[in-house]
Every structure is written in structure tokens, then in C-alpha cells.
Amino acid sequence: MSELPEAWVMADSPLHCEGVTKRYEGGLVLDGVSLSLAPGSIVGLVGRNGAGKTTLIQILLGLLQPDSGSSSVMGEPALAMTDASKTRLGYVPQQPESLHWMRVGDMLDFVGSLYPAWDRAYVEHSLERWMISPERPLAKLSPGERQRVALIRALAICPKLVVLDEPAAALDPVGRRELLRELALRAADAGTTVLFSTHIVSDLERVASHVLCLHDHRIVVDSAVDDLKETHGIMRLTREAASRVPGALPGEVSRHRREDGGLGIVLRRDAGEEWPPAVTAAASAAATTNEVPIQVPGLEDLVIELTS
């Protein structure tokens, strides 16, 4: 998505940022992060706990000011969004606690009065489906129930952009599957763009059209899910084979030292291209160890290798 033409990105991307950097108390969290979401896409943001996913989401939505760089939402500066844009944005934070002193029904009625496209029938159907009484106080709900109510609130506004920070963290497997199905249907039927962060890779594989991996303060993977197996490879080398590999290889995304002294190297190439000669030479050197030198990764394997 970051490869899209600049004019298209600025004009049509529902969520866009360039060169975003953020530090907390002297510690670097984000280092020059840039990304653009295509309209109608479902994008999964993955990374280890503490990688900066929540910070990135807050900056993207104008809830936090970056030290440098900029972000835009539906073509407007994130820090100066108009009310019209805000009514088309559904957001669920990792721990939804707002208006917790109210009853479920009262809170949803109050929020609904602020949004012209509020879908009251969807609210009633969803509360009934998830067996949540509108008379119950939000503060008395379980974490999973609070997350469900927050999701209802975000989707009932009929948004054009939905941003969810670990939306399935407190949901059971059935609830997670229902949520993912709902997101997929909205993206297909209404052209809603979805960004959700998760540490559950199987959820991402089930519904996402695109994956972003945040590691070491930057985006290390920005790819369509269907292209990953063609564009990425994992080279796992024994200690002996690793000693014959020079410095960074062409297309190297990351490398880490394995416990046995070998190397795990993640490589990237353009779709339809061959691996560069330096990569194939390193693979040939490793072939004597009876290993498969460049393995086609599954998404979970790729994420583990990238974040190890």
C-alpha cells in the first residue's frame, strides 16, 4: 500500500501517515513510519506487545501528536479533523472504559444522538444476539461484554473507516469469529475500510487482505496477504552455514541469531522477480547442510521470525 502513487494516496487513502516518529521519556517507539490504507481494505497490524501498535493507532487518528511526521484521516489532517469526518470514523480502543457509569442502553442512545447515520436496528439486534441487556450498567459488564458493546457503538454509526485496537482480546472464539465475519461483510458490502491490531495471527489470516508488521520501531512488512508467499522467504542457517554468509543480503528484512548459533534471515523480493545472485549464493552455501535454504513462509512463521 505504501507503493501506491503519491497523488492517489493523498487524495483517496482513508488513513495515511508519513515519517511518523515518537519517543517516550527518551525511548524511541516509532521511527519514520509511513503507510497508506486502500479504500475498502481490511488491514491487520501485528507486532509484539510493546512494539508501538497502540501509539501508532493513536497518532493515525489524531489522538496523540507525533514528534515528527504527519497523518491524515479521510484526506484531512488527523489533528484537525472536521466533525463530518468524525461521524464516519468508528474507533474501539484496547480497553474501552468511556461512559462506564451509564447503563448500556442509555449510553448507546446518547452516542446515537450524535451520529446522523446511527443504525438503531443494528444496535437492538446486536444486543439481543450477544444477550446483553440494555438495562445493565456498563461498569458491571465483563471485559468481553464491554468490548462487544464498544464494537456495537463503533459499527452502528455506519462508518467508512473502522479502527480497532486488539478488538478480539477479550472475546471468546465464537465472539471473535462473529466479529471477523462482520468486518468482512462491511468491507465487501459497504466499502468500509478496516484497520485492526492483533496478536492472534489466525484471525488476521481469516479476514485481512493486507498485513502490516511493526517491529524495531518501523514497519518491516507492508504487503497483501496473498502476495506474502511469493515475495518473502525465510533462510534458516546452521552455525557453520551462517559463518559463510557475508553482511546484509539484498532484500534482507531482518535477521536474528538462533539459540544454536545459526541465523534466521527474512528476505523480500518483488513479485515475479528471482532472488538476487548474492541470496542464491548464500542458499547454495547452506545447501550442504541438508537444510531447505529458502523456505516459503506461512504468515505465523513469518511474524515469529520477524519479531524474534
List keywords for this structure.
single chain, about 300 residues, alpha/beta, Rossmann fold, Alpha-Beta Plaits, six-stranded mixed β-sheet, four-stranded antiparallel β-sheet, 12 helices, elongated, disordered N terminus
**CATH architecture title of the largest domain:** 3-Layer(aba) Sandwich
Radius of gyration: 22 Å
The shape, in one word, is: elongated
Q: Return the average pLDDT rounded to an integer.
A: 85
Oligomeric state of shown chains: single chain
In which range does the helix fraction lie?
Answer: 25-40%
- CATH topology term of the largest domain: Rossmann fold
The largest sheet, given as strand count, sense and whether it forms a barrel, is: 6 strands, mixed
- Helix and strand composition category: alpha/beta
The CATH superfamily of the largest domain is known as P-loop containing nucleotide triphosphate hydrolases
Number of self-contained structural domains: 2
Number of strands: 13
Assigned CATH class of the largest domain: Alpha Beta
Largest beta sheet: what is the strand line-up? 6-7-8-3-9-10
List low-pLDDT spans: 1-10
Q: Give the number of helices.
A: 12
Give a brief rundown of this model:
With 308 residues, the chain is an alpha/beta fold. 34% of the residues lie in helices and 25% in strands.
How would you explain this protein's 3D organization?
The protein is of the alpha/beta class and 308 residues long. The chain has two domains: 6-215, Rossmann fold (3-Layer(aba) Sandwich); 227-307, Alpha-Beta Plaits. The protein has twelve helices and 13 strands. It has helices at 6-12, 53-60, 83-86, 104-112, 120-129, 143-156, 173-190, 201-207, 228-231, 239-242, 277-287, 299-307, and strands at 15-24, 27-36, 42-46, 68-73, 76-77, 89-92, 161-165, 193-197, 210-215, 218-224, 232-237, 252-257, 263-268. A six-stranded mixed sheet has the order 6-7-8-3-9-10, sandwiched between helices. A hairpin with a 5-residue loop joins strand 12 and strand 13.
